[in-house]
Amino acid sequence: MEKRIGTITILIHDREAATAVNRLLSEHADIILCRQGLPLHDRPVAVISLIVEGCMDSVNALTGILGRVNGVDCKAVVTKIS
User: Fold this and answer.
1) Closest CA relative to residue 16, chosen from 42, 35, 44
2) pLDDT along the chain (82 residues), means of 10
3) For residues 3 and 79, is the Cβ–Cβ distance under 8 A?
4) What does residue 71 show for φ and ψ, rounded to 5 degrees?
5) What structural domains and CATH numbers belong to the chain?
């Protein structure tokens, strides 16, 4: 399959969900090139941004599983690698 590069933005509204998110990110570490987290202690949300590279099935699998975690919103933007 054709590889793509892109970003995944994860918003964590429930801090209890952070453990599940970290476990899922570890399981999909093979497509994650970079990870940046911003806890925003004074607000009810934490933000994680990822740079990913992989086939669409892999990227969609990660965003799909993350999106099913209670208290988590997730969006991906990808483009073809020329």
Assistant:
1) 44
2) 94 95 97 96 95 96 97 96 76
3) no
4) 85, 10
5) 3-80 (3.30.70.1150)
